[in-house]
Amino acid sequence: MYNKVLIRYGEIGLKSRDTRRRFENILKNNIKLALKRYNIEGNIKTIHRRLLLEVEDNNLDRVISILKKVPGIVSFSPSVECNLDMKEIEETAIEVFFRKIEELGNGTITFKVKTQRVKKNFSLTSVEINRRIGESILKNFQRVKPGDITLKVDLKNPQITLGIEIIDKAYIFTEVFRGVGGLPVNSQGKVLVLLSDGIDSPVAGFLMMKRGCGTVLLHLKISDEGLEKVKRIYEVLKDYDPTSKLVVFDYREILKSIRELLEEIGKEKYTCIICKRIMLKIAQEYARRFNCEGIITGDSIGQVASQTLRNIYVISEGVSYPIFRPLIGLDKVEIMDIAKRIGTYDISTSKEIRCFAVPRHPITKGEVEEARELEKYIMDRIEINKIFSDNNKNYN
Length: 396
Prior knowledge:
The longest helix has 20 residues, at 17-36. The relative contact order is 0.11. This protein has 396 residues and is of the alpha/beta class. α8 (271-289) packs across α12 (368-379). It has helices at residues 17-36, 60-67, 86-104, 126-144, 200-210, 224-237, 252-264, 271-289, 309-316, 332-342, 345-348, 368-379, 384-391, and strands spanning 4-9, 43-46, 51-54, 73-82, 107-117, 149-153, 160-166, 170-173, 177-178, 190-194, 214-221, 245-250, 295-296, 323-324. β11 (214-221), α6 and β12 form a beta-alpha-beta unit. Strands 1, 2, 3, 4, 5, 6, 7, 8 and 9 form a 9-stranded mixed sheet that branches. The protein has a 5-stranded parallel sheet with strand order 12-11-10-13-14, sandwiched between helices.
């Protein structure tokens, strides 16, 4: 019955006409890519600040789960389309409504009719349409009397809201599904996300996707188990950005050298700071290679020793690329809630994999000059160029 999906966006509608059309086209392409990932074909077009997707009815459940994860979509409704003829609208509305009643079973069922004239091209007002459709439903219900059902109008908290949107045609529905919102992926350029197997960085990547950024996900591998978790996280995040890439850089030897060399000179408390400074240098190189316009980390102020305000400053010094930290002001519970909502939390917490190089007493207030000297000391003793060359094969 439902072979059309009416898709609504939010911020896109506030843009100028040319920008809005460009964003609409990006969003349409993203929807097609998201569906194609699951071997679903669909025709999609723009209808006056809405998108209309046509799919096979037997794919509807899968389409609903896919559209929930496409940034730029605020809400959507599987709909039945009919002409802008009041009699046809009545007949279609009754058919849609009675099918919904069949799903709910017996008892008292409350409902209301809610009409929105997206285009003011219909002779009746929204209130007049609501009244006429509501009266038709009640009249037909009294005639059919399906089962032991009592039907009542409730304008405040109904069990069924029969929605009608008047555009080029009438679109009738009973469900409104929430989307991610935000802006379409790739409408704001591309960023490189430092992706670990933990809770935070996948959420940081998702939030940048939601703000319209395409992503390259860079994982600095320190264990095989961690990489396997990251691959699973990547499959989840790819639902939000079907254009994303995963790049794996084998970081184990570098991290081992950082730990050993700093221990030799009694500066192991700087291990996390130097590790992250070098991580950002590597991220910067990959950001250049992939034409990214910023680096994303999952830092949140005060969460661990390397994320004190002072250490974030020390770690960032010397990196020319912009570093964005979308989680910077969130606490752990807020981050966990988002991770659960987007589907990465269970993967991130499935097996705790601790970094083998974390010192017993990491410094919480590092000094820029000392960090700079220690970084140079490390970089002079590792073959970073050879490591980069060996890692070129790790593009996915």
